[in-house]
Amino acid sequence: MSCTVAQPQTPNTDPNIPQIRAASRQLAREWGFFRSTYEDTSLSPAATHCLIEIAERGVATDAGLRHVLRFDNHTLARAVSELVDAGLVEPVLEGSGVASRRMTSRRMTSRRMTSRGCAVLASIDDMATGQVQTALTTAEAVDPAAAATIVSGLQLYATTLHALRMRQEAAQTARDPLAAAASTQPAPQPAAVTIQAGYRPGLLARAMDMNTAYFFTHHGWGMQFEADLSASLADLLRRLDRPMNQAWTAIDARTNRIVGVIFIDGEDLGLPGVAHLRSFIVDDSVRGSGAGKKLIAAAMAFVDEVGFEEVRLNTTRELAAARRLYRTFGFVEAREVEIQEFGMVFGHLQCVWKRPGLQATD
């Protein structure tokens, strides 16, 4: 039996539309959205995306996950239960420690990653990165400009679709004020962030505020961490007048508040031509807004301007969102080592960027 596709009520005169729709369906198939599990994991595509979003936010509320992933309550409950049952995320009680994993997802409203979840996410990242890299390499063999074309096209299409949805939701809210009053998760507004280089009053205080808040909450790093890091950053601040060192702040244009910091230290490693990217962090209020990407872009532009041959940084596996950003700027995870710092022993990922054509310094 054959079937004739119904014609749209509005005649389609743009030949690009069917091509875009066909490509979108092909992408969904290639990404595995129609399979019961994602790649070599036992996770559904919904749970996989949920895991990524929780990693991006550090601690994610159910309301926030519903909004950004566009899940209904049933889909969210299934995805969260899948992650909790697998030991990949754990519930968090506001104002207290981590709750028992035996507590059901319906009783809890916030989630955060476990160490096992971080390991699974790292595996997912590796698979996804490999898929993208292989596709770009293949495409660039045909067209050297393919990567730039793909990035700009996907970003433009995705941001346009998002903007249209925000506009439609705003119009719906205006038509239905009762629905607006009942909403528990208003659509987040894009952060208006500017990047400024150099010292700014409150730079050290805000850098420490954001670092201690994050690392105490997620790792329990307390007094020793704060004392050691503040002393180290204070030393760098005193050296910002030297041409190989610099700091950048992300400033919320609405409040004039520092909401992100990053530092390049061209001296502390003691190696000619090698810089140290340090203490990169953004405030929870601007996570996912692009502020972090702007900060790293500013730092790497400085690296290029000064002429550093290599940049090194240390991170941890748990900082999945930051690791993805580093990779987009050409950093490679060179090795994982166990170090003693801040009065404790823990694993560090050492990441390296080197100028094309140069070998990394030993």
From TrEMBL:
SUPFAM superfamilies: Acyl-CoA N-acyltransferases (Nat), Winged helix' DNA-binding domain. Residues 200-356 form the N-acetyltransferase domain. Keywords: Transferase. Gene3D superfamilies: 3.40.630.30, Winged helix-like DNA-binding domain superfamily/Winged helix DNA-binding domain. It comes from the Eukaryota. This is N-acetyltransferase domain-containing protein.
